[in-house]
Design a protein that fits this description.
The structure holds 2 protein chains of 2 kinds.
Chain A: E1 5-7, E2 10-13, E3 19-24, E4 31-37, E5 44-50, E6 53-56, E7 65-68, E8 75-79, E9 88-95, E10 105-106, E11 110-114
Parallel strand pairs in A: 2-11
Antiparallel strand pairs in A: 1-3, 3-8, 4-5, 4-9, 5-6, 7-8, 9-10, 9-11
Chain B: E1 5-7, E2 10-14, E3 19-24, E4 29-37, E5 43-50, E6 55-58, E7 61-66, E8 71-76, E9 85-93, E10 100-102, E11 106-111
Parallel strand pairs in B: 2-11
Antiparallel strand pairs in B: 1-3, 3-8, 4-5, 4-9, 6-7, 7-8, 9-10, 9-11
The chains are: A mainly beta, B mainly beta.
């Protein structure tokens, strides 16, 4: 597609529920990133995919968070047993090669609210 | 954790004036990038400067990089009301598997 698409744009869920956030990167971009942004802060790194594999998942806060990219394109961020502290905007970005020579293209994000 | 720190946290100027934002970071980098964000949603890539470059221009944007001081600046000349946004620096640190680390941002307001 022309840009990075994230769905849903907004998600309200109850504490303890499971949620899935979807990211559709730019076609042909091999690198895909998930970030989380709290109000008034910069984005914080969660996980980086190169192709189908997670090259770096060091930013995932705990084992309730998991992400997949089974075919090297669309990625899903999964959060189990959601907590109120998980409320944030979850941003997905893609880059052509992930070799540091290109900027990221970000999606518009999913605003997750846990009540 | 946030690698970079932007300064100032907030900046308010009149249309037509120049805006300067600064960024400091902590570790050795491959490159440094600047992004703009409107309304707390998607970020837009503005410019990338590599660690062996000292200055780069793109339209009304001028970025400098001083690796000895671990700092960068973003200058927006002849500002417009449409430049109102949050601006973030992000570093691609050596050995980081190519993930960017963002600062906390500068909120720029350009008054018409």
């Amino acid at each position: 597609g022309a840009g990075v698409s994230q769905t849903p744009s907004n998600k309200v869920t109850e504490k303890g529920k499971y949620v899935e956030l979807r990211c559709d990167p730019i076609s042909g971009h091999t690198a895909l990133y998930w970030y989380r942004q709290s109000l008034g802060q910069g984005p914080e790194f969660l996980i980086y995919f190169q192709g189908t594999g997670a090259a770096d998942d060091s930013g995932l806060p705990n084992d309730r968070f998991f992400a997949v990219r089974p075919e090297g394109s669309v990625s899903t961020l999964k959060i189990q047993r959601t907590e109120r502290g998980d409320s944030a905007v979850y941003l997905c970005a893609s880059s052509l090669y992930g070799d540091g020579n290109y900027g990221y293209t970000f999606g518009s994000g999913t605003r997750l609210t846990v009540v | 954790s946030q690698q970079g720190e932007e300064d100032p946290q907030a900046l308010s100027i009149q249309e037509g004036e120049n805006a300067t934002m600064n960024c400091s970071y902590k570790t050795s980098i491959n490159n440094l990038q600047w992004y703009r964000q409107n309304s707390g949603r998607g970020l837009v890539h503005l410019i990338l400067i590599r660690s062996n470059e000292r200055e780069k221009h793109s339209g009304r944007l001028r970025v400098t990089l001083d690796t000895s001081k671990k700092s960068s600046s973003l200058l927006i000349t002849a500002s417009r009301a449409a430049d109102t946004a949050s601006y973030f620096c992000a570093t691609d640190a050596r050995g980081s598997a190519r993930q960017l680390t963002f600062g906390s941002g500068t909120q720029l307001t350009v008054l018409p």
